[in-house]
Write a structure and sequence with these properties.
By secondary structure, the chain is mostly beta strands. Helix content is 0%, strand content 52%.
């Protein structure tokens, strides 16, 4: 079956013989709207997101575990990939045109998730989210790291690191007040698949370290 799945596991044990444990697994696919396979799932609280792809279409799906309901968010028949979620706020990368980072806040009372753009430069990396803070990089010849703090339908873009050298900033991630990323140097060209091993950097939003 195409994933992702919601797993329900029950275990039975023969008396005193641990290695003869029997595991019975019931597998229930979450994705019902699309017949295409799912990929890149993420989960937070009572919400699961993933992307579906087929025939050139990539959509973002959200599953509400409490209400057992599936939704397509960010518009249908688009090119949306790499979803992540924190609470009821989902973020993903849109591959149309300038490749923006997009965000929506899901309302479980009516199943809506109004979408906003939160990046203003193209060729963005896969975003990361923790709480209301979103982090991403822009992968031009001299990329920068950006973040925003979502509040009541708005998430103004701010620069975390401005690149003044030939180094690439890649693989950004974030957890609460900490951001990390990899800084790598192109070898002889600007090809991103030809990078020297780099340095891992940590940023504390309360105090840079």
């Amino acid at each position: 079956l195409p994933g992702p799945y919601l797993l329900k596991v029950t275990a039975t044990r023969n008396d005193g013989v641990i290695f003869e444990d029997k595991i019975e697994v019931e597998i229930n696919p979450l994705n019902q709207i699309s017949s295409y396979g799912g990929s890149n799932p993420d989960i937070s609280d009572n919400f699961v997101v993933w992307e579906s792809s087929g025939e050139g279409i990539k959509n973002i799906h959200l599953y509400d575990l409490v209400n057992a309901a599936e939704y397509i968010i960010g518009g249908n028949n688009r090119v949306n990939v790499d979803p992540v979620i924190s609470g009821n706020v989902a973020v993903w990368r849109n591959l149309e045109g300038n490749r923006y980072v997009r965000l929506c806040e899901f309302d479980s009372t009516n199943g809506t998730c109004p979408t906003i753009n939160i990046s203003y430069q193209g060729d963005v990396s896969s975003p990361a989210i923790s709480g209301n803070r979103i982090l991403w990089s822009v992968r031009h010849a001299h990329p920068n790291l950006f973040y925003c703090e979502y509040d009541n339908g708005s998430c103004p873009q701010q620069t975390l690191v401005s690149n003044v050298s030939d180094w690439f900033y890649t693989n950004p991630d974030i957890s609460e007040n900490y951001a990390v990323w990899l800084s790598t140097n192109p070898v002889g060209s600007d090809r991103r698949d030809d990078l020297e091993p780099g340095q891992i950097y940590l940023y504390d939003f309360n105090e840079q370290v």
